[in-house]
Amino acid sequence: MRTLKHPSREEIQLTDVFHALSDPTRLAIVQNLGDAHEQSCSGLNIPMAKSTLSHHLKVLRDAGLTHTRVEGTHRLMSLRREDLDARFPGLMDVVLRTAPVS
Amino acid sequence: MRTLKHPSREEIQLTDVFHALSDPTRLAIVQNLGDAHEQSCSGLNIPMAKSTLSHHLKVLRDAGLTHTRVEGTHRLMSLRREDLDARFPGLMDVVLRTAPVS
């Protein structure tokens, strides 16, 4: 099975997390994922070219915000809530309870 | 007295705040300001060309993170803690209690 590279918990940097969240689409993806289980790309319901969406998902993954599991032809995303709460307690609470970007 | 433009509380956007905080120097400035009173540029103790520092301070001001008061030839900065707490409760607590960027 192909696996994707993810930073370890200790490697997650606050400035990288802020950069990833500074884009309205990426912030919306994180808010959509929320505390839900895994979601597929189509489940995110973001109307956007696949290549653009893939870029945003890579930025989120590289920053340590999301985990992507490859299952066959599907990619299943989830928020790394436990890692983020351990690194920056309270941050995800703020992000998820702020009204989604309009 | 010359006054600088600042966004109103309602105009402060979460993505702009995250963009401003995604740079290690700007994050350090915000953490230096903390809950302190006003600080001058020199008080920030950031070893950097004045023009570069001015740029960073403008990004912070435009995002609504800081307020700059012009007094003669001095500029005095402060964190807009009350506005930020009203817009994004808990965010500044997280930012200020996270260990400064090394």
Automatic annotation (TrEMBL), chains A, B:
Domain of life: Bacteria
SUPFAM superfamilies per record: Winged helix' DNA-binding domain (SSF46785)
Keywords: DNA-binding, Transcription, Transcription regulation
Keyword Aminoacyl-tRNA synthetase attributed: no
A Pfam family recorded for this sequence: HTH_20
Domain spans labelled HTH arsR-type: 6-99
NCBIfam families referenced in this protein's UniProt entry, alphabetically: HTH_metalloreg
Alphabetized PANTHER family for the sequence: TRANSCRIPTIONAL REGULATOR, ARSR FAMILY (PTHR33154), TRANSCRIPTIONAL REGULATORY PROTEIN (PTHR33154:SF12)
Protein name: ArsR/SmtB family transcription factor
